[in-house]
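Thread: Newbie trying to understand structure tokens

Hi all, I'm a second-year student working on a class project, and my supervisor (Dr. K.) asked me to get a predicted structure for one chain before our next meeting. I've only ever worked with sequences, so writing a 3D structure as a token string is new to me. If someone could post the tokens and maybe explain what I'm looking at, I'd be very grateful. Here's the chain:
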Amino acid sequence: MSQNVGMSNCCLSGKVREGEPAGREDEIGGLQTYISEPENHSNAKSIIFICDIFGYKFPNIRLLADEYAKAGFYAYVPDFHQGDSLPLSFLDNVEPPLKTQETLSLVDKAKNAAIVPATLGPWLAKHREGVSRPLIDGFVNTVRMTPGTNKIGAIGFCWGGRYAILQAHGQSMSGSGSDIGGVDAAYACHPSLVAVPADFDPVEKPLSLAMGTKDSLLDQGTVGKIQDLMAKKIEVPHEIRLYEDQIHGFALRNDWSSDKDKKAMDESAQQGIEWFSKYLS
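---
Reply by user tm_fold:
Sure, no problem. This is what the structure looks like when written as tokens:
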């Protein structure tokens, strides 16, 4: 039986990163897209970023795309929410970093928890798999057909993490009618809404996973099941890295004021860069 792991107020927490994105916006495959190019402007190694619920305009994901571009990848950050991402105001008033969570009263925690279904329920229904999967598959197909493209990677965070895993399945299952082979490699950071084992059994492409040991959406029992499932796939390159004391969303929205949290975020970025350097070459 598949176990679906949901979303919580962790998905609405985190910090906004300082800095000015260096890329540009363009329309690709009918979607507004942030693009960050490597110094040589080559799109031979392209990476598609599948954002979390805060969308493609979130400064953190654009600045991270810039880091990948500096490492030699052509980075696309499409608006898969089609202008309907959740507002960044939730970052300020819903679940704070772990060190602050531990000081909250039961009343404060209950108030935070009450926000989640009211906020996420309607949004998730609107952006369900039947709507979002064809958009993502179609974008992958558009990049595949772009002159100069050789190999493609997908990196996803939280809501987008599951779709990065689905891209590693290979053949498109979206029913969109196009013959899409998925991506060449994928990297999922603290994915949410995953079904275990259903989302992992069909994985055929190299898959890297980054998860925190304090992730409220992926408890250690669930992580253990994922590890066991992937361990049986001896023919599929994979890795699962656990980040000590890191909560859901750490790879994209961590607390820069904490040396430990910043280190985890930096290392998770390097994890993806090294993975794609190996499997998109």
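A couple of things are worth pointing out once you decode it. The chain has a mean pLDDT of 86. Residues 154 and 280 are 11 Å apart (CA to CA). Feel free to ask follow-ups in this thread.
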